[in-house]
Amino acid sequence: MTKQVQQLDRVIIRFAGDSGDGMQLTGDRFTQETAAFGNDLSTLPNFPAEIRAPAGTLPGVSSFQLHFADHDILTPGDAPNVLVAMNPAALKANLADLPRGADLIVNTDEFTKRNLAKVGYAGNPVEDDSLREYRVHALPLTSMTVGALADFDISKKDAERAKNMFALGLLSWLYHRPTEGTIAFLERKFARKPEIMKANIAAFRAGWNYGETTEAFSVSYEVKPAEHEPGLYRNITGNTALAYGLVAAGERSGLPVFLGSYPITPASDILHELSRHKRFGVRTFQAEDEIAAVGAALGASFGGSLGVTTTSGPGIALKSETIGLAVATELPLVVIDVQRAGPSTGMPTKTEQADLLQAMFGRNGEAPVPVVAPRSPSDCFDAALEAARIAVKYRTPVVVLSDGYLANGSEPWKLPDVDSLPTIEPGFAVADGGDFQPFRRDPETLARPWAVPGTAGLEHRIGGLEKADGSGNISYDPANHDAMVRLRQAKVDGIARDLEPLAVDDPSGDARVLVLGWGGTYGAISAAVRRVRKAGRPVAQAHLRHLNPFPANIAEVLRSYDKVLVPEINLGQLALLLRGRYLVDVISYNRVRGLPFKAEELAGVIQDVIDSE
């Protein structure tokens, strides 16, 4: 039977099931094949914080959304075109996001009375009219998988576990995804369990063959590769990009990289990735707690390494005293905060932008630190490199504000030309035979010398007590303390001279409304701006990477527009800073749901602001 192939320009698929159903693995494999095929893509993994929530319950639902297209895209998509629901809980948790007419693939084997009752369904929605607005494909995925694996010497439980591979095979056929990479992956993953490996490959192929032969799917879909700038690409998550950026910083500076870290969601993958790169002079230390981790990282910086520590918001709170010590000792230190929903433990696997004020002011005394925020998963590479450059050049701790969405989301990344990456010059102090002055400053950067301990002629005091300007002797002199506080602030403020001006995207030049964002909101804001412009309404956009200090031209940009809209996944932290520093009454738009903004939602907000002109 020859089936019709329909061309599409983009598709949004969401895999959803119990946290034990392998939805993250399924989504990741579909993503890898999509990246290999050449589509542009953006992903949004969404999973519970519990190690194993009760099976079949709403808190245990795990999902993975993938948006892929034949053109440049910026977000994982607002609403899925296809929802794969492996059980009633997955259906109930995700159905509200599914637009009318979308495809709904449900695993009917899990729609038992017991599982339906767990999530409050009085009847079976697959059998009544409650799903009539969707194109429902009711498939017994579990039993079809078990039947396909009947000849394998594995338990029924292991056979049932392979249902995610059956679903992946079906979706791979439906959207013309390559299969070679997934088969090779399964061969590697289960190399020590050959029968399990063969069974999973058979389940994957059975799903593909079912799509090819069944009358349930009369149409398959094709999304052609996107046009990319020539080069070598790979799919990358934000955490991996941060790790690679730190490796690159070590190579471009000639410094050994030392990571002191304590595992915490969603930052742990940076530790995992960096631990694989010892051949690049990277050393990783998993400490007993957050305080020990940052203490070790600062000690490494004192010893002449590029000290790095990674954590999330609760860990930043614990590290604050040592970050203040790094401010006082004026040593380079990269502090990566992968923000998550709080306060306290909050929602560890959900995203938020609520640590900005903590990064700015969460230390005792006047302790200014530069703050850098990446805007996309691939941009995390450049943000890590930039943070290291500033930390080394200006002898200061630098905070990188990533977030859970960037950390776990992925997109294509063009591998950079290594020789084009910025060189970072450590500029270690050299003994000249005179009295070493550990706080004698570079007149341009105000940075003090970086003296490697044990170097003859560079002996000096170090510690958290206030130092005398120049000599570094302990000082309680009020005038000296005032001078040192102002020097440390001036050093951070002076970084603005070293930054690119804030770029404004205003194609028509007629916009009176500026949308200003920071961090991981870039994709949603950009997609929303595109929609508004397509509707014929002029709007300008700018996005901040540097949050302390701000770019030197930010005041001019803010005052060039009648209204400035600032969307944030917090209650208005950047807006507070902008109002306080520049006396511009920006319009704050805030949501703290643990999820990224939707482009459609922001487009409506932008339209409302323009209409209120």
In short:
49% of the residues are buried. The protein is 36% helix and 19% strand.
| Average predicted local confidence, pLDDT | 97
Helical stretch count? 20
- Unreliable residue runs: none
How far apart lie the N and C ends? 59 Å
Radius of gyration: 27 Å
Class from helix and strand fractions: alpha/beta
Measured by DSSP, the beta-strand proportion falls in: 15-25%
Oligomer: single chain
Main sheet? 7 strands, mixed
- Helix fraction bin: 25-40%
Q: Would you give an account of this structure?
A:
The protein is an alpha/beta fold and 613 residues long. A seven-stranded mixed sheet has the order 11-10-12-13-15-14-20, sandwiched between helices. It has a six-stranded mixed sheet with strand order 3-4-2-5-6-7, with helices on both faces. Strands 17-19-18-21-22 form a five-stranded mixed sheet, sandwiched between helices. Helix 10 links the parallel strand 10 (257-261) and strand 11. The longest helix is centred in the N-terminal third of the chain and has 20 residues, at 194-213.
Summarize this structure as a short list of keywords or feature phrases:
613 residues; 19% strand; globular
Please write out the topology:
Layout: E1 4-8, E2 10-18, H1 23-37, E3 40-46, E4 61-69, E5 82-85, H2 88-94, E6 103-107, H3 113-118, E7 135-139, H4 141-148, H5 156-161, H6 163-174, H7 180-189, H8 194-213, E8 219-223, E9 233-237, H9 238-253, E10 257-261, H10 268-274, E11 282-286, H11 290-302, E12 306-311, H12 313-329, E13 333-339, H13 356-361, E14 371-372, H14 379-394, E15 397-403, H15 404-408, E16 410-414, H16 478-493, E17 504-505, E18 513-518, H17 522-534, E19 540-544, E20 546-548, H18 554-558, E21 563-568, H19 573-582, E22 587-590, H20 599-611
Parallel strand pairs: 1-8, 2-5, 5-6, 6-7, 10-11, 10-12, 12-13, 13-15, 14-15, 18-19, 18-21, 21-22
Antiparallel strand pairs: 2-4, 3-4, 9-16, 14-20, 17-19
Helix pairs in contact: 1-6, 6-8, 7-8, 9-10, 9-14, 11-12, 17-20
